[in-house]
Amino acid sequence: MNSEVVTANSVVCYHCGNDCNGEVVHLHDKPFCCSGCKMVFQILDDNELNTYYSLEDQPGISFKTSGSASKFDYLNDPQVRDRLVDFKNDTFVSVSFYIPNIHCTSCIWLLENLFKLDSGIIKSSVNFLKRELSISYEEDKTSLRSIVKLLASIGYEPELRLEKLDAQAPSHTNRKLWLKLGVAGFAFGNIMLFSFPEYLSGSSLNTQGSFYLFFGILNIILAIPVLLYSSSDYLKSAWAAVRQGNINLDVPISIGILSLFTRSVYEITAGIGAGYMDSLTGLVFFLLIGRLVQQKTYERLSFDRDYKSYLPISVTSLDENDEEHSKSIDQLKEGTRIVIRNNELVPADSVLLSEHTFVDYSFITGESEPVEVQEGETVYAGGKLVGAATEMRTVKEVSNSYLTKLWNDSAFDESSEKLTVSSLADRISPHFTLGVLAIAINAGILWWTVSTEMALTVFTAVLIIACPCALALSTPFTLGSALNIFARNGFFIKGIDVIERLANTTAIVFDKTGTLTKADHADVSFQGEALSDYERGLIQSVCKQSVHPLSRKIADHVNSSSPRKVENYEEKVNKGISATVDGKQLLIGSTDFISAYCENEPMQRSTSKGDFSVVHIAIDGHWKGWFEVANHYRTGIKKLLDSFRNRFSTFLLSGDNDAQKNQFTDYFNEPSLRFNQTPQQKLNFIKELQENNQRVVMIGDGLNDAGALKQSDFGIALTDNVSSFTPACDAIIDGSKLQRMDTFINFSQVSITIIKLSFGLSLIYNIVGLGFAVSGQLSPLVAAILMPLSSISIMIFTTCSTHYAAKKMGLQIWK
Hints:
The protein has 815 residues and is of the alpha+beta class. The chain folds into five domains: 3-44; 73-160, Alpha-Beta Plaits, CATH 3.30.70.100; 173-298 and 421-478 and 749-808, no CATH class; 311-406, Calcium-transporting ATPase, cytoplasmic transduction domain A; 519-632, Calcium-transporting ATPase, cytoplasmic domain N (3-Layer(aba) Sandwich), CATH 3.40.1110. InterPro entries: ATPase-cat-bd, ATPase_P-typ_cyto_dom_N, ATPase_P-typ_P_site, ATPase_P-typ_transduc_dom_A_sf, ATPase_P-type_domA, HAD-like_sf, HAD_sf, HMA_dom.
């Protein structure tokens, strides 16, 4: 198979769909942006898997770099391997991987045909929502390392992080809840069938008494597991609350459940009635549906993160013979020599052994400018290397490095969770419970003078009919619907219990870089003499050699089709670059840097407003002009800030310097702008606002915001890839949807209003039911109709209301 390299302006890669800037690799007359994409195509072509490209145009993942040969050697370590696999016996192994690059049907098809690429793989299946790949393989035919290396070679490298080694067994909470729901549903359906003749005959049990007794006993047998198993969570919660001297919503619910069961058993065994087992099981069934809605979360999103989530699972180490080995990070000891390559994170505090390097600490501090580090200086954990591969020696273990200190604050202490706003139902329940008990006792006393039996009947009837099932259902169904609508609009919230905190917002705190502005985008323009395509090619060739973000942005902006070989390259930190290209001398940098070498005097361009950065250009001693590099605001962000300023107290916290401060003075008051903020200072500022009774929403994108996000009342992690790793937070928002944040807050407030309206509807049902109960007219037919009707009507009302409100606000309600 022959391939050739050509140059082109706007050719699209056959594999990944990216533009082929500069060199284009051809194979079988198909263009590829790099040799990596060509290699993936060749692997698939050799194994007759070209159907991959027929399912979708350019379905592949860009693959422009290939790691070192020893990158996955750590997977040969039995201790690491055993901690990663899900199941293992003598020959069979099962393992699952998180693969963020899964994005379309073609990806699923390819990954489920891995057995054609490796004969040791028995089966592979994809869970698209979780971006998870499950693989079963024979250990005597292949290995974990070989499988991961294969996945990486076709552009689907698994996301292996340090936290994976400490993963706990999966929770079975949802499985138990489904079982309880199944038991309640089975009992509810069958008891309704057994009770059907009794509904038609009314309350008369004088005929065929043994027939009614037989079915009554069956109803008791069916109701016992519902009482002891399906409703156990409510009974345990109520008992725990009472023991602590509190009353939550589960207390009146439990009273109603126990009253229903005891009165029903009494009526059936005494032969005076058919009982209310249908109402009991129906009540528990609907309550469990509400609880299931409440526990439903988006498992593919990760809301709670610690430092282990950000570190890779391995690092390249050097032995005494300078040979490279891949080592698991949790086995990394103090004094180990390691090699860190471009864009890799430093896993532990280390001393630089190479001459010098550049480190990007924006992941930790928020400062977007790379820092130059000289030989012998410390490079802190969490820094990202920018430039050529560098050798370091660790001075601390991973668990003792600077990165871990971000989690030492009490904000990350699971035993001291930030105070949550109790639900409206829980705040109402003490008053509701006491009111119901007062009505039941007074009604019982009034009927006592008439009949002791009637007094007991009325007392228990009040407790039964006033069971606040509708109250318990209104919150999970309203907020559950809201949760789904938020998700369909790119706003993924951790759970329904935090939506009320969003609705009560009084202050909003923004991070700058990566949140209001896009760190990897910039608005670049050139002022001065017109540049030819050849001159643009010279500038691009030089700027591509630099690690400085301004140089990178200029190189991307120029985007010339005439790249050239660069010689005599020299870069002076915070000054500029000098280099020779095609025999021409180029100077790129500040006015002071190039003015001494120019035959014409560079124009002084003031940047006092801080609206943009200026980079001057000189070719062969002739000053050509300057590039203006300005922050690129996210779409709609200025309108959003104007809206927020009129509604909330707004603040800007940034790890960057204040060079661009004036850009934000139109949207924030002077005291609200804070620059050069460390992660600890951000966290402390959130605490200060909360001490002043502010309910704070924090919106940030980086690890440096993790403490502030965790401390805030509602932390929102912004990302341009919702499947990627994010800091600990209450919600994840798609970066393109930030402009709708005002609408999201409004919708959360409307959702709380709908809950209050549903409480009013529930109160009407209770008043009607109490009227029947107090007057001694609560028949089985009335109870059987009224209690399920109230639950079903609340579910319909809350679901329809939230969807109607979302549609009025312009939110997408269906996918």
